Amino acid sequence: RTYNLAVIHGDGIGPEVNHQALKALDAASERFGFRLESTEYPLGAQNYLDTGKLIEVGTLERIRRHDAILFGAMGDPRVAPGILERGLILRIRREFRQQVNLRPVRLYPGVPTPIKDLSPDRCDFVVVRENTEGLYVSEGSTVHGGTKNAVALQESVNTARAIADVVDYSFRLAQKRRKKLTLCHKKNVLVHAGELWQTVVDEHSPQYPDVEVDYVHVDAMCQHMPMTPERFDVIVTDNLFGDIISDLGATIQGGLGVAASANLNLDGQAPSMFEPVHGSAPDIAGRGWANPAAAVLSAALCLAALGEGEAALSLERAAASVLAGLPALAGPGMCAHTDELGDLIAQRITQG
Ligand code: NAI
Ligand code: MG
């Protein structure tokens, strides 16, 4: 088996952590006997500043032919906020119909969490966020009535078709895990969208009789997730609620250094994209302080999606074992450099 990866390093710590992910993937390919070919696409803030272009149609079409996209991070203080997000990241998600944003929330042993008394065995769930609709279609209008009387309308688009794809994916994921699916919404207030989500879940439920289904309002979710994360296995939700609760999830699991994500194409017509949740971190770029675990765990999600389950598990285990040793590595006089951590992770993958 040979997999063709499109690699987008991006800016700041993007290339620094992505290189560690590639090292881990190389180690896994040797150990598990598959081939990886990667092609780099120089996209991001620096490329935009140099060329004035975000991404050309020809580049998109070349990326489309890859099996998966490994994405670092992009952003630069010299580029206005929103330009890269809308012009590149959201564009890729939309063009490649990446309907699911997958955010595992797992507390690995040794990783400090701000939640008092939370032990790793109680925190292992996944947020499945609808990635293309809801309020994020950015449709609406502002009725200008002067500074005092303006009215802003922001539309939320929810199609049964997109919800069904995401809900079906979530049921199948739950079947492979602890067999519990929780719908998160605010259906008591957002009655139109909420009812459609609930209806789609109810319609799918009989096909998955082994999966237990429940429902939690998004505000209550913000209490339950940090206090009783063990009650969740797969949480399915819309674009906005998913954005918010998955950031809460990242905090619970110990922050941006360990939060991984996948943007999944479900129809097989375009590649999925795998990226750490963090951004380009200009404040620490170039210093070797970036934690590569989030990028390596994202690469693990990539292998799992490609069907290399064993290799995926070995990346996750290696990253987890290095994280478990980090408090010691980060002690006085022991500065753990991004590259060294990447080497250590690759080494553990090789050794098994
Ligand atoms: P950020 O995630 O880049 O950094 C937030 C804080 O977390 C910083 O103090 C940073 O040093 C720290 N941090 C982030 N990743 C880390 C890691 N792997 N190891 C250790 N510390 C880490 O978010 P920020 O500062 O709000 O944004 C910086 C730039 O990144 C902006 O241009 C923003 O637009 C962009 N951004 C891009 C994203 C993407 O490419 N998907 C996502 C979020 C932000
Ligand atoms: Mg976010």
Automatic annotation (TrEMBL):
PROSITE patterns recorded: IDH_IMDH (PS00470)
Gene Ontology molecular function terms on file: 3-isopropylmalate dehydrogenase activity; magnesium ion binding; NAD binding
Keyword annotations: Manganese, Metal-binding, NAD, Oxidoreductase
Top enzyme category: oxidoreductase
Cofactor: Mn(2+); Mg(2+)
Domain of life of the organism encoding this protein: Bacteria
Isopropylmalate dehydrogenase-like domain mapped to chain residues: 4-345
SMART domains: Iso_dh
Database matches in SUPFAM superfamilies: Isocitrate/Isopropylmalate dehydrogenase-like (SSF53659)
Name used for this protein in its record: 3-isopropylmalate dehydrogenase
The organism of origin for this protein: Arthrobacter wenxiniae
